[in-house]
Specification:
Length: 224
């Protein structure tokens, strides 16, 4: 069948702005090279004309230079047109890409809203409020338990705060008085007894009646 009817040619991809911009830019580069080459020839002819005298030869070189200059102007005009075309296509390509990006963003946002609605259906607002109420009640009960455990026992409830403050001030004065012990320096401790009895001194003495007594004031027993 392929021999009889031949093979169908593969379809070429549709043109796009990116490829078109690339082709135009390559043509601009080719024109830049041609313009540069013509500039070199013009410079060469200009140097020749400076060294030549007026006459037919100089006029012939001048005509060649004018022809090259016209060709250069034509290339420059073509280059400006292509540069403008490339710029316009780039702007159009940028606008198209921006629209595509916007569409992608909108599609993503729509999908996000859809997923959010799906997840919100799994959430019960009433259950959340019940949980919050239960937590609030439990916190109140915990505070009551702490207050109950911290309650003082055996403390009279009819104590006047003014009386307590007056007693506290008086207590502070008493403490200051107790801390001041300068009065102890004025009083001296009793001196230690001087002249303790030694072996050379008699250990006994006599009463008014002449009875010998020992060092404790008791009558001495007669020696046997």
């Amino acid at each position: 069948m392929n021999r009889l009817f031949g093979r169908s040619k593969p379809k070429e991809p549709p043109p796009n702005l990116t490829d078109a911009v690339t082709k135009v830019d390559s043509r601009v580069e080719s024109l830049d090279k041609k313009i540069g080459k013509l500039d070199g020839e013009l410079a060469k002819y200009k140097d020749q004309m400076k060294k030549m005298r007026d006459g037919p030869s100089k006029n012939m070189v001048k005509q060649r230079a004018l022809r090259i200059l016209k060709q250069k102007r034509m290339y420059e005009q073509q280059r400006e047109n292509m540069v403008q075309q490339s710029f316009n296509m780039e702007q159009a390509n940028y606008a198209i890409q921006t629209v595509k990006d916007t569409k992608t963003t909108v599609d993503a946002m729509k999908l996000g809203v859809k997923e959010m609605k799906k997840e919100f259906k799994k959430v019960n607002l009433g259950e959340i409020e019940d949980v919050q109420d239960q937590l609030e009640d439990m916190m109140e009960e915990a505070n009551e338990i702490q207050e109950t455990l911290g309650r003082a026992y055996g403390m009279p409830e009819d104590i006047d705060e003014d009386d307590l403050e007056a007693e506290l001030d008086a207590l502070g004065d008493d403490l200051a008085f107790d801390e001041d012990q300068s009065y102890l320096d004025a009083a001296s401790a009793p001196a230690a007894p001087v002249g303790l009895p030694s072996d050379a001194e008699p250990r006994a003495s006599r009463t008014a009646e002449g009875v010998r007594v020992d060092e404790f004031g008791l009558p001495e027993l007669p020696a046997t």
